[in-house]
């Protein structure tokens, strides 16, 4: 709306439009908050392919995943002979669906996954699991143990 107003009011409208669109774009990436359709994780990777740094939630998700889920879905969520790759399964999956299958369990062509809502190590951490697995599935986070980004003030 604001962008559009600027375009028609100002003389060199086109340029202003581009600039505001660009600013809008960078803002929405760096904020990355918990809103539904926004990226739920923050990942910063070294350009030389070194370790990635992640926000605390994503880090806790990594830890929880490798305390429980890796037993079936394998290290780094790549899948095993009896449980699917979550990198693949999370593509296009909505957060609400993820919450439901992790809490209540899921049965499909491959087999049966139990629900985790009674598990005190998992249920308080489903949001963090979502952050971690989404980052993996989006290709934002490479395999292996991530490092923590400095705490936000
Ligand atoms: C006992 C083995 C086992 C463990 C442990 C396990 N899963 Fe699963 N999970 C499965 C199997 C098997 C499937 C696939 C079911 C199918 O599609 O037939 C699955 C499917 C899924 C799916 C995809 C559901 C869909 O709609 O496609 C998600 C997401 C998932 N698991 C997340 C997790 C998370 C997070 C954890 C750790 C809290 C976890 N799983 C632990 C066995 C397991």
Task: Spell out the key features of this protein.
mainly alpha, globular, three-stranded mixed beta sheet, disordered N terminus, binds heme C, 2 domains, Cytochrome Bc1 Complex, Chain D, domain 2
Care to describe what's here?
The chain has 153 residues and is mainly alpha-helical. The protein folds into 2 domains: 2-31; 43-148, Cytochrome c-like domain (Cytochrome Bc1 Complex, Chain D, domain 2), CATH 1.10.760. It contains 6 helices and 5 strands. The protein has helices spanning 2-9, 13-31, 56-73, 86-89, 95-104, 126-137; strands at 43-45, 52-54, 106-107, 112-113, 147-148. It has a 3-stranded mixed sheet with strand order 1-2-5. It has a two-stranded antiparallel sheet with strand order 3-4. Helix 3 packs across helix 6. 22% of the residues are buried. The model is unreliable at 1-35 (pLDDT under 50). Bound molecules: heme C (HEC).
What's the short story on this structure?
By secondary structure, this protein is mostly helical.
* Tertiary shape: globular
Number of helices: 6
CA-based gyration radius:
19 Å
Q: Assign the CATH topology of the largest domain.
A: Cytochrome Bc1 Complex, Chain D, domain 2
Roughly what percent helix?
40-55%
Bound molecules: heme C
- What is the total tally of β strands? 5
What is the number of independent domains? Answer: 2
**Average residue-wise pLDDT:** 82
Helix/strand class: mainly alpha
CATH level 4 superfamily of the largest domain? Cytochrome c-like domain
Largest sheet: 3 strands, mixed
Strand order of the largest sheet: 1-2-5
**How much beta, percentage-wise?**
5-15%
What is the ordering of alpha helices and beta strands?
Answer: HHEEHHHEEHE
By CATH reckoning, the class of the largest domain would read Mainly Alpha
């Amino acid at each position: 709306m604001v962008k559009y107003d600027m375009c028609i009011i100002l003389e060199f409208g086109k340029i202003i439009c581009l600039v505001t669109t660009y600013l809008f774009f960078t803002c929405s990436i760096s904020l990355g908050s918990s809103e539904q359709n926004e990226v739920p994780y923050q990942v910063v990777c070294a350009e030389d392919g070194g370790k990635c740094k992640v926000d605390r939630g994503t880090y806790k998700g990594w830890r929880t995943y490798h305390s429980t889920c890796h037993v079936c879905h394998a290290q780094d969520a790549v899948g095993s002979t009896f449980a699917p790759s979550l990198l693949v399964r999370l593509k296009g999956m909505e957060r609400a669906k993820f919450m439901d299958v992790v809490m209540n369990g899921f049965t499909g062509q491959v087999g049966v996954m139990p629900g985790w809502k009674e598990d005190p190590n998992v249920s308080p951490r489903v949001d963090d699991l979502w952050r971690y697995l989404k980052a993996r599935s989006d290709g934002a986070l490479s395999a292996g143990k991530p490092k923590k980004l400095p705490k936000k003030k």
